[in-house]
Predict the 3D structure of the following.
Amino acid sequence: MKASRAWPGAVLIASLASLGVLFVLDPGKTHLLPPCPLRAMTGLDCPGCGSTRAVHAILHGDPVAALRLNPLLLLYSPFVGQFLLSAVSLAVTGRPLPEPHVRPSMTWLVLSVIVAFWIFRNTPIYPFGG
Amino acid sequence: MYCTNCGKQHGDDARVCTNCGKELPRIIPSIPTYLPQAILVTLCCCVPFGIPAIVFAAQVNAKLAAGDVNGALASSRRARIWCWVGFGSGLLVAILYVLLALAGAAQPGY
């Protein structure tokens, strides 16, 4: 199957640009980057809240702070890495990387962890509140 | 597709060799699950659209394992659609916010 090289190139450029912005700006301190819409409206943290601050922390060499801000980002970094490497492969060679076979039970586990974390982080016993 | 036993040629949907009776290897096509994209959308863009994307991603391999290739293709398409919807809405919110922030920054005291 022949795939277009335009969109993976766009994905790569957008990803690099986003990383550049997140290196320069700390989403926790600037007003130029959007907050999570769910949190802005309801005050509840979503499973992705803190992920852009976590990227900022990783880019500044602080994985511990990244784990505190959003542990899922590091936990699921193999998936994120696979996506980015596949985009590189598509842009350079015109073929995606072969997708590793993920068993359905694994995918359900991934989803359950996200939902469980979502609930857990909105309870008072979550260790890194706020 | 050729029979691995006697070499007779068959269509792609044949299950058993009509010449020697041996069961033919099933061709399992590689169908993208969009799981990495679905996780990215959930964590970085938009939870309400990311979660259905993960559910459909799970269905792709579940249906494939059950031999339901058409169902897996349909789930794969749905997973892709939810990923794009989530990505698009996240991008839209971000662009609107940045525009508003810039407009607000340009008006002192607002």
